[in-house]
Specification:
With 426 residues, the protein is mainly alpha-helical. It starts with a helix and ends in a 36-residue tail after the last helix.
């Protein structure tokens, strides 16, 4: 048990950098020389390497600092003041963070409320979207407020335990959101490319449970890390730099960005290629197709419908554009941060990143949680209608929208559309 705790303590500090919790690497002299003599202590010196990757954006510059000849494992005292950002910059960044918290919390809450209160919306894909929205809510509630206070104060003032807890929660909820987005992409691939409906509500719930388990595995190490340095612009940890640390950060960044990005990129290339081919095939036929013509085009499930159906190609294009937009926003928010994290981990410390630039990179990951509900409202008509229904009557200034239709029973029939609208979210 002690060996496992020691191993986790060695590996976990890199997760703090993923959250903007700036690592402070200290190689104490008493580790290198267990029984130093006065002669050795006057010769052997300890080097302290700091990575100030603060999401507060106050002080992320780093320098190599030789410690005194006396043996010491304590970090250098924190600066009394860190006047890096002007008051105007702090006010602007604080206002931006407040806006992100409000939009992410209330926007994603509406998504969860719609799926919870409307049984017709509880399809497999909508359950996944609700879980994605829940993860975004938790990021805005458990992580963003700490970043806001740290920005204003200029120091991490919440202590060791909250430091570890926020690092754990950040990785947990961000990882969960990314896994759900990847799951939605796989589901869309099977429906569009393979023409197979592999996902139902029961399987979706199992998939959600499995994704939470995987997220817990990745996010757990910060909880048992036993090194901490107070008084700096952001929650900071101390640890010796080893090959295992570098391997772990590669694993963490791969789980959060590299693997999902590569996998989803290939899936969407296949999906877009299939949509393009089917669009060209339908354009070469009359707008109104008979059953035999629709069957030749590979449009499943039309044999039990009326003799003539309208194939709405714009509907399927718009539906998958919504998911594609979620993916594009994810890449936009996470790619710069991932590159910056790799640079800070494996680059030279004397070329440390500017504090304001690093603040922007960290907050971009928060921005992802605020962008998602905006995309839902913009692209998904059913959510707009449900939002209108949830509004108080005194606030309903617009004319009443048409009532929601029945939920789509077979997601594989996304290529079919008649007067009855589809009730799936995407």
């Amino acid at each position: 048990m002690s060996l496992g705790r020691h191993l986790f303590a060695r590996l976990s500090p890199f997760l703090f950098q993923l959250v903007g919790c700036s690592p402070l690497i200290v190689i104490p002299e008493n580790v290198l020389t267990p029984s130093p003599t006065p002669l050795l202590s006057s010769i052997v010196k300890t080097t302290t390497v700091t990575w100030l990757a603060s999401s507060a954006g106050r002080n992320t510059s780093s320098r190599t600092m030789p410690l005194p000849t006396e043996i010491s494992s304590s970090p250098p005292p924190p600066p009394e003041s860190l006047p890096h950002l002007s008051n105007v910059a702090v006010i602007l960044l604080a206002s931006l963070m407040v806006a992100m918290i409000v939009i992410s919390t209330f926007g994603n809450s509406i998504v969860c409320l719609i799926v919870y209160r409307k049984p017709a919306m509880r399809s497999a894909i909508n359950l996944l979207l609700a879980n994605l929205a829940f993860a975004d809510i938790m990021v805005s509630v458990t992580c963003m407020p700490f970043a806001l206070v740290t920005l204003i104060k200029g120091l991490w003032i919440f202590g060791e335990y909250l430091c570890k807890l926020t690092a754990f929660l950040y990785i947990l909820f961000m990882m969960e959101a990314i896994l759900i987005l990847a799951s939605i992409s796989v589901d869309r691939y099977f429906i569009i490319v393979r023409r197979k409906d592999k996902l139902n509500p029961y399987k979706a719930k199992l998939l959600i449970a499995f994704s939470w388990f995987c997220s817990l595995v990745v996010a757990f190490p910060p909880l048992i890390s036993d090194t901490f340095a107070e008084g700096y612009p952001q929650c900071r940890v101390e640890y010796p730099l080893t090959i295992w640390n570098k391997l772990y950060i590669i694993f963490a960044l791969s789980s959060i960005f590299f693997i999902p990005f590569i996998a989803m990129s290939f899936l969407y290339l296949y999906i877009l290629n299939t949509v393009r081919k089917n669009s060209l095939r339908v354009e070469n036929h009359p707008k109104t197709l008979s059953i035999s013509q629709a069957t030749k085009l590979g449009l499943a499930g039309v044999h039990h419908r009326p003799s003539r159906v309208n194939v709405d190609m714009s509907f399927k294009t718009r539906a998958f554009t919504t998911i594609l937009l979620l993916f594009i926003v994810y890449v936009f928010c996470w790619a710069p941060y991932t590159v910056g994290s790799m640079y800070l981990c494996f680059g030279k410390t004397e070329n440390a990143m500017d504090s304001l630039l690093w603040t922007i990179l960290v907050w971009l990951t928060y921005l992802n949680s605020a962008f998602n509900p905006i995309i839902y409202c913009w692209r998904i008509k059913k959510f707009r209608e449900a939002c209108y229904e949830l509004m108080p009557k005194t606030c309903k200034l617009l004319p009443h929208l048409p009532g929601r239709a029945r939920r789509r029973i077979r997601p594989s029939a996304i290529y079919e559309c008649n007067e009855i609208e589809q009730s799936s979210a995407v």
